[in-house]
Amino acid sequence: MFPLAITGATAAVPDVTAQLPGTDALGPWIVLGYNGLFAAALLLAGATADRSARTRFFAVGNIVVAVTGVLSALSPNLLSLVALRAVAGVGAAMCAAGGSSMLLAVYPPEERRRVYGYAGAVLGSSLALGPVVAQVLMAVGGWQLVFVAPGVVAAIAALATRGLPDLRNHKLPAHFDLAGASLFGVIVAAAVTALGLGFGAGVRWWTPGTMVLIAAAAATGLVRVERRASDPAIPLDLLRIPAYRAYAVATGAFMGMLVVGLTVLPQLGSAQSMGPGEAAVMLSLLTVPSTVLPLLAARIARRWARPLVTTALLACTVTAVILQITHHPAALLVVAAVVGLCLGLTQGVPDGQALHYVPSQRGGAGAALFSTARMSLETFTLAGATGVMAALGPTSGMAVAGAVCLVAAVIVVRAVPARDT
Which tens digits make up the pLDDT trace of 231-245? Predict the structure, then answer.
């Protein structure tokens, strides 16, 4: 259901904003609200899942997604839809954290790296397929079906948990770092809001400025809380592992390039009077490689993970530069093909390589933190691109995503050992 909830919703935004009453500025928040609350709630959801009946927690998250999906299709205006999407993001965080915690309870330490690597590849491939599935659903039943369909899948998943064991972990202490997890959520939510609003025309400077101050205050409080916590919500010791940190930034940059590209390329194609056939080809070039290349990517990564990831990040940066020079339809197709190839050849690679540096007994914490970092950077990239595009136009959004990829490439080169096997 995640592909439809994230990238599928991106494809539905133009139709939704055209049909529902409300200011067009709310359109991007259909995606940003979901992504922002997902990233903000993930750490708290993970800690709660580990200390409760994991299967039941997963089921409740799916129920939240199911209910909000149906209600989203009935939304009378854009504001109510954005609010429902934010609640759905919390439910999705419960699903992701509960599902990851269930895997942790079932698989022994020596198998977790492989399992989480497959999970990362599946998630990336599904994200890429989201727009294609969304287009089909909109053709069949309108934009409402884009939100109902994930809800139906979530309801089925909730029903499928009936009869499964609770998978409780009685070894963990009942208390956990609630303050740290909550402050992290405030940081993400405030930062996403500030970046999404930007400082363009029609935005009063004090609104994003206030959000920046809130994020800074929460960050200061988080540092103090984590230093005193006996069991911190954010395992900072894992973030001190250079290669782990670098690969987390890399996968966030790739996902940011994908979600921004899914927003920007159709807009540029429409401005260049690109026909439906060309637009479909462009979308396929951007998404299909991620569904057919992950197995090849896994083989390449066995010996050349570091150069593979670095080259792909640099190639994504070059495509962003190309779009600053020309918007010709042929250039848009080339950009879509290059970005799609880079994403397809790196699906699941950073995930598996990062967990290679995490002690096996801490595989669950490593996977949860990695997912949080990836989702946070992806959301920050989309929010930053949205804010810049409001002032400078769609091409500038790809410039933001390209800059993030360039920074990620530098970090990977400097932090990951040359023989990264």
Answer: 777 777 788 889 999
In the predicted model, is pLDDT for residue 198 greater than 80? Answer: no
End-to-end CA distance of the chain, in Å?
Answer: 33
Report the predicted TM-score, pTM, of the whole model to 2 decimal places.
0.78
- Going by C-alpha positions, the residue among 251, 269, 223 that lies closest to residue 308 is 251
Residue with tokens 């809001």: 193
Choose from 13-17, 292-296, 326-330, 399-403 the range with maximum mean pLDDT. 399-403
DSSP H helices in 198-241: 206-228, 236-239
Nearest CA to 135 among 284, 329, 331? 284
DSSP track, 257-277: HHHHHHHHHHHHHHHTT--HH
Residue with tokens 């995640």: 2
pLDDT tens track for 143-191: 999 999 999 999 999 999 998 988 887 666 666 778 888 888 888 888 8
Three-state SS letters, 391-416: HHCHHHHHHHHHHHHHHHHHHHHHHC
The residue written with tokens 């397809």 in the block is 344
Amino acid letter at 77? Answer: N
CA separation for the pair 409, 126 (Å, rounded) = 24
Give the C-alpha separation, 261 to 252, whole Å.
14
Contact 287, 132 (CB under 8 A): yes
Residue 68 carries which side chain, given as an amino acid letter? T
Pair 339, 261: CB distance under 8 Å: yes
Chain position carrying tokens 């409780």: 168
Measure the CA–CA gap between 174 and 152, rounded to whole angstroms. Answer: 34
Instruction: Dig out the tokens for 61 from the structure.
Output: 């998250």
